[in-house]
Amino acid sequence: MILKLIIDDQPHEINVPDALLAEARDYFDQIDRDMDRGWQMGRDWIEAPDRIQRAQIVADRLLTAIETDNLKLGTLMAGYLLDRLPGVETVEPDIQGEIQNTRFDIGRHPQAAPVVSPATSKPTGAGLSKLEAMEQAGRDVTQVFKVGRGYRFSVFDRDTGTWMDAPLAPTEQEAGRLRQEAFKARYEALLAGG
């Protein structure tokens, strides 16, 4: 698989062999366990990085690997992104050290399977209980994160199997209010079987 990287407006391509993706799953799990303990993202300590934040952290490590000509580490970091963000096509790491400003272009993933909730082990959208719907909505709507001078969150689009960024809000409070609305809508849709 190919991951495109944009560094300082210069495109780079990293070829990640399919065999490596399968062989490195334990390594990717170890990366996740390391991030489970929290991570410093720029000036902020994030106690529980969400999926997008984890990808931003790994993209920063990928940038460092490219800058130091560490091809092996770069390929592994690209593999993590391809594995954990299905459909990711392009990564644009922030070169100023603001990890949370890293951007991803996620296209439609041709092999995207229906998302299965680990708590229920059945496809979501089958009319979940209130607790199951709340847990799934929490997985489908990320926490608010800083992007440049604004704030946003991401919502998982079940129809396309991709993450969609919410519009940029000028304040964290405004982004939080919009996130609550998105969370409520997702929760109600899951209860109704949507």
Q: Describe the strand arrangement of the main beta sheet, using strand numbers.
A: 2-1-5-6
Count of extended strands: 10
Summed up, the domain count is 2
Strand content: 15-25%
SSE string: EEHHEEHHEEHEEEEH
The global form is globular
Structural class: alpha+beta
Mean pLDDT, nearest integer?
A: 81
| Biggest sheet architecture | 4 strands, mixed
User: Please, how many helices?
Assistant: 6
List the uncertain runs: 108-126
- The radius of gyration over CA amounts to 17 Å
This entry's quaternary arrangement is: single chain
Distance between the termini: 32 Å
* Helix percentage: 40-55%
Characteristics of this structure?
alpha+beta; four-stranded mixed beta sheet; two-stranded antiparallel ribbon; 6 helices; globular
Give the structure's gist in a few sentences:
The protein is an alpha+beta fold. The protein contains 6 helices and 10 strands.
How does this structure look, described?
With 194 residues, the chain is of the alpha+beta class. The protein folds into two domains: 2-106, no CATH class; 130-191, no CATH class. The protein has six helices and ten strands. The strands form four sheets. A four-stranded mixed β-sheet has the order 2-1-5-6, covered by helices on one side. It is globular. The model is unreliable at 108-126 (pLDDT under 50).
